[in-house]
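Weekly sync, protein design subgroup
Attendees: M.S., D.O., the rotation student, P.L. (late)

Item 1: inverse folding check
M.S. brought a backbone from last month's batch and wanted to see whether the design step gives back something sensible before we order anything. D.O. pointed out we never logged the input encoding, so this time it goes straight into the notes. Structure tokens as presented (178 positions):
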């Protein structure tokens, strides 16, 4: 994100209201530390979105394996993780704009989390086994729950996203920031 035109990206050292509120869009990746995001942090993020912030959660951070579902009305959490790298846009939406993958798109990480849309969730990307990206509005803000581990490659190595995976992330940041 730091290399993307028109986006000022910086890491946060703490998931607290006074830090998150400075952001137009906050990207919450799956954490490498168990228990880092609990109900208290989820409440901070719910309030942030309700007050107009944009939030993107990836992989387990959608509400899977001990991580709380942040905006259950949009995404009730993850159902399962599947060793699969293929996905495809499910409909024309600002999140899928410019994504063209004949025969399907792929992501770098070796698996993804199948997400469970809530009543206000719109499925924008699917894999053969179910939805992998849902989005929706909550209060004055927007939320994207992405079951892909964007920014990770096999072996849990950090890796800049490329291709359709990068386009999806950039589109999500811009949509959440509107």
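Designed sequence read out in the meeting:
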């Amino acid at each position: 994100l730091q290399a993307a035109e028109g986006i000022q990206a910086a890491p946060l050292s703490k998931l607290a209201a006074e830090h998150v509120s400075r952001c137009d869009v906050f990207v919450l990746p799956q954490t490498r530390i168990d228990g880092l995001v609990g109900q208290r942090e989820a409440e901070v993020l719910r309030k942030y979105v309700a007050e107009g912030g944009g939030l993107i959660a990836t992989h387990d951070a959608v509400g899977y394996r001990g991580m709380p579902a942040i905006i259950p009305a949009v995404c009730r959490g993850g159902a399962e993780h599947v060793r699969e790298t293929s996905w495809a846009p499910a409909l024309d939406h600002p999140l899928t704009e410019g994504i063209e993958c004949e025969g399907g798109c792929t992501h770098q990480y070796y698996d993804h989390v199948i997400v469970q849309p809530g009543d206000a969730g719109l499925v924008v990307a699917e894999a053969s086994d179910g939805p992998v990206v849902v989005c929706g509005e909550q209060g004055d803000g927007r939320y994207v729950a992405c079951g892909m581990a964007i920014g990770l490659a096999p072996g849990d190595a950090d890796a800049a996203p490329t291709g359709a995976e990068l386009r999806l992330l950039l589109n999500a940041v811009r949509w959440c920031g509107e």
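Discussion: Residues 86 and 106 are 4 Å apart (CA to CA). The first helix runs from residue 17 to 20.
Action: P.L. to compare against the previous round before Friday.
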